[in-house]
Design brief:
The complex is a heterodimer of chains A (about 110) and B (about 425). Chain A contains five helices and no strands. Chain A is mainly alpha-helical and about 110 residues long. The chains are: A mainly alpha (about 110), B alpha/beta (about 425). Chain A: It comes from Bosea vaviloviae.
Amino acid sequence: MRWLHARRPAEFALTGVAALLMAAAPAGAAGDRALGAYLASECTGCHQISGRSSGGIPPIIGWPEEQFVAALDAYGRKQRDGTTMQTIAARLSRDEMTALAAYFGALAAKP
Amino acid sequence: MTATRRDLMAGFGTALAAGTLSAPAVLGQGRPRVVVVGGGPGGATAAKYLARDSRGAIAVTLVEENETYQSCFHSNLYIGGFKRYEEIVHRYDALASAYGIALVRSRATQIDRDRKEVVLGDGRRLPYDRLVLSPGIDLKYDSVAGWSKEAEEAMPHGWKPGRQTQLIREKLDAVPDGGTIVMIAPPNPYRCPPGPYERASMFAHVLKQSGRSKARIVILDPKESFSKQGVFMPDWEKRYGAMIEWLGPKVHDGITSVDPKTGTVVTGFETYENCAFVNVIPAQMAGAIARDAGLAPAGGYCTIDPATMKSVVDSDIIVLGDACHAGDMPKSAFSANNQAKVAAMVLRGELTGSPTFPARYFNTCWSLVDTDDAIKVGGRYEPRDGRIAAVETFISQPGESAEIRRQTQAENIAWYDAICADMFT
């Protein structure tokens, strides 16, 4: 994008291309990844992205995606105990759970 | 110090790639510049997410006057003897080495909104395209008659971390058996709503553990009620008997004055003389840099757009954390860290064209009452009717099992490790 190369860009009024990106909901796999990344940013306040855990809050990286979605779904239906996770899961749609499962499932533990 | 091209290349070798969609990284001159003021849970998180997720497309500078970050959250656990002081101290180095953030160790003293520059105490000026302000709170030293900045050693607040935190512990250690601690709690809105009551719990825990069970803690509160009151008070009685006494305004009839020289506290109802230790937690407001820039009314906090965390006064400026009015979200580290992610997403969208999504917010506040006995309160929030509104909340229940309380404390400990990793690594 040419405007990123400007010497001292005074403003960042969006170009036509960028405006289209913002205006339309991102579609397809790339959009799911971006959604997954944004939603995941909320999780990493409690679940370390490295996979490290001191016990009280479990690691959530590298899970099989079906298992991840099932866990969130169980919290959302209050079939699984834990008021914090129940509240979080209650507002996640199935698509959002899937996006999160894909995002975290792809991460490998850091030593 | 500015990140070199080599630093950026090395840093992003380790940056996480999964799930990030953004414009290709552009190195060198001409990148959009974001300056972040304040290296706490709002600022450090915003700086990291902006730098990491833009993969170098945004030049991020973090201005923080302290060499290390000493967390106010969990400082009560240090006071209670549950953590060593070193455990609440953190370094900023990884933000530079991993993400190419330019760390400026200086005090930001002024915002020149017309020229879009941050002015530092040494006179240097940092130009910005967007500014993230996360300066925390300032204390209203005139909010308790007889108390002042000069009195904050004799009657510490411990509401900003560092020396004040350690002073609180020193004063606690010097309380004799049978001595009286008076805590003056703050009026709303203030940093960390359950904080004073967690601290009173920690006082009682230390006194009881050290054989000083005849000491007592009197909380004088300008508020009619306090966060998690229905859960704290039965637990105090269970754990500490009559050691902690809470007095609301109807009982004490007004906090009249304090005398730091004699350790006296005068209320409409009673005078407490020769107090072993008086902990004054005063009224609070946004950090001066935000107020001086016209982003908050005198003595107040900054109003923000709930969908973006932008100041309603200046759309090039984001205000995070304790310095802003975040609607139903309390002033907490969790909230600041959470708001920072919305802000980073919004700014990346504006500056690099990356996708944006509707803002959503979450908070949990944990409070330790006694060993393996913690309680929590929290909720999820969304922009509604021009403010950040609570959609669903949860709170610990009185009479919960010991196992639930133990698990709540285990969560608390794990959360601290996670938020610090999120902020600093």
